[in-house]
């Protein structure tokens, strides 16, 4: 197999740091939060903060909030056109076509509450290339950011895609 100088494509260079199309969630309901908490904590009872409004009002949050892993995009929302921001899957027969999930790191901000509308956007944040036991390896970092209807930071996720 021919050696490759780089796995970074011109499309990646062009997309680096550029936020893609925004996706907007439906308004989050108290029922959405309750059902998510029940599913996540099953078969245990979820913390009252996620389903008992009277109790939740006595907490520092002053009302029901969603668990931090709550995903308002778990239900289909109109997304428009999808533009890839990193490695393109389906290239297994090409050099750099082997893909691995390198994990993710989440950072949390404001809690999601009933009535919130979350806006998500994604970008190719950066990459690193280095040689490993499989040859030239590309670590691609894709950042997703969520903000609520007030512009408050809710969450970011940096996912790592490994190509070799």
Spans of at least 5 consecutive residues with low confidence: none
- The CATH topology of the largest domain is given as Thiol Ester Dehydrase, Chain A
Largest sheet: 5 strands, antiparallel
Mean pLDDT: 89
What is the radius of gyration computed over CA atoms, rounded to a whole number of angstroms? 20 Å
By CATH, the architecture of the largest domain is named Roll
Order of helices and strands: HEHHEEEE
Q: Work out the helicity level.
A: 10-25%
Number of strands: 5
- The coarse silhouette is elongated
Give the count of structural domains. Answer: 2
The first-level CATH class of the largest domain is given as: Alpha Beta
Q: How does this structure look, described?
A:
The chain is of the alpha+beta class and 164 residues long. It has two domains: 1-27 and 83-164, Thiol Ester Dehydrase, Chain A; 29-71, no CATH class. Helices cover 13% and strands 30% of the residues. Strand 4 (135-147) and strand 5 (153-163) form a beta hairpin.
Short description:
With 164 residues, the chain is of the alpha+beta class. The protein has 3 helices and 5 strands.
List the main descriptive attributes of the protein structure presented here.
2 domains, elongated, Thiol Ester Dehydrase, Chain A, alpha+beta
Mind sketching the topology for me?
Layout: H1 10-15, E1 23-24, H2 30-41, H3 53-56, E2 99-108, E3 119-132, E4 135-147, E5 153-163
Antiparallel strand pairs: 1-3, 2-5, 3-4, 4-5
